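Entry:
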Amino acid sequence: MTTAIPHTVRTLFAEAAGDFRSAWRAFAFTDLTFKAIAFAVLIPAASWLLYLFRAGTSDRVVADVDIARFFFTKPVGIATLFFGISLIVAIVAVEAACLMAIGFGRAQGVTLNARSALKFGATHALKVQRLAWHMILRLLAGLVPFVLGAGLVYLALLREHDINYYLSQRPREFVIAEGLVAFIGIGLALTLVRTIVRWALALPLVLFENVHPRHALGESAKRVVGARFLILWILVAWIVVASVLLTVATSSLDLVGRVVAPQLASSLVLLLLFIAVLALVGVVLTLAVSVVNFSLFALLLTRLYLRLTGTQVSASAVAHFASRGPRRFSGRERAAILVVALLAAVGVGLLAFLVNREQNPPLVIAHRGASATAPENTLAAFRLAAEQHADFVELDVQESADGQVLVVHDSDLMKVGRDATKIWEGDAAQLRAVDIGGYRGPQFSAERVPTLAEALATCKGRCRVVVELKSYGRNQQLEERVVAIVEAAGMEGDCIFMSLDHEMMRKLKALRPSWRVGLLVAKAMGDLTELKADFLAVEARMATRRFVRRAHRAGQDVYIWTVNDPAWMLMGLSRGVDGLITDKPDLARAVIERRAAMSNSERFLVAQLIRFGASTEALEAETALRP
């Protein structure tokens, strides 16, 4: 049996590969056309439907913790999650159905071209959607025990202290929790694999035997009895093949880009031409790999279905969709497609060059001070940040039990001082007695939790301040007290403010409409510009060129966090961000100064090196970039 399964897998792969070779044009045109329709129509339509679900709520824009609150505690959020996932699954499944129809037809002696395959998919789209609903509903129900298990682990082992303490110090409780969560994760993974194997034939049963979507999952589980290991082998083999193809394609492009681009740095025209051609080749190669991988998946599933079903099916499911053959493009049409592709590639190259032209000098924002060297949120870190020429010091504020505004990030001092007292439960004097600097070295053992007033006095005249208002649901009058302290220090014009909590942002803006108040974001759903913040401080990967352009059109600056690597700093600058939030203000200043001394073509070259995956060491070699 151990030799029979690999032999069967090889046979099925050979049959699927043969099907693809004999009708690759039909597969390519079908898949590419469907992808174009999906991106142009289906995905926007799905997004619009999900927007309608949320239109009656106040959650038009949801970020960070609000995402979990919206999706898991509100009925409309749960419905949005269910329908959103099922729509995505259905779109992918309909794409697979179109390709499976071609493969099924070839196995039964029926020829389908791209048009007839797409018609087949459209005809069965509603049934596929219903199948997706049943699949997602059962999957979500199956996730409940695992989610509850992970929640119990958190409540039993990780609830006592701030999560940052556990992540940084990794105490015994955290290691035990990691092991338990890993065990739960393994159980979840095994359950998902078993489910996927049992449902492997559900889609072809709906498409080719007209089995009702409600019964297809159960019928599939019956049909695969005795063949589950075979299905698992096929799935693993396909993942390996698809990963190898994708890796070879992307790594070859990266290698060519990194080898050739630096050689053309002296000629901007040649560099632009090279990037345009490489972009075109990259798009074509990526699409080709995508077509091959997804077509191979659909064909393997079809061949598996035919092998396990045997003589129970006929060609009638696709016979009336039969076509005379694939439609061929004329010479003029092919020339037009090539010209459009070349123009688009040149446009991409020019756009990449233009976004690297002159821009306003970006700001260096020291994250909790110069916290890579000095203890975070201490006066020592703030002084060092000023010495390293940071434009802003970013700090976090909370209220103590007696109403003092203290500079501290976590909900307790476990990470920095091994004190488990919650900030909102301790008096300022008690909290300020804790050594929060000794963990970074004896030279910092005198550091204590600063008050906001002390922090402002340290920064005044040396650098400006970004005040982040922390929200753990225990605030008393934090916004009002921050306003009073800033005004008492005479630093209204030298401070800007931000928070993860939208309501705190709105309240502070209502208290002082002329102050700059921004939103801190790690994850988002919707258009953040609708919140009317003065600036957006976002996780670095969120700051795409499109995102930055949209924010700038809305009059909002974009700062990215927390960037401590030159490659990420340069990437952010190439996308037009207005500030770098970093633990290493000295490095950020060096990167900005080095980039300012570059010509436009050099900036373009560095941006392309980053795009092609250049490491920090490679960037240093090419640009002599050192702090």
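The chain has a mean pLDDT of 86.
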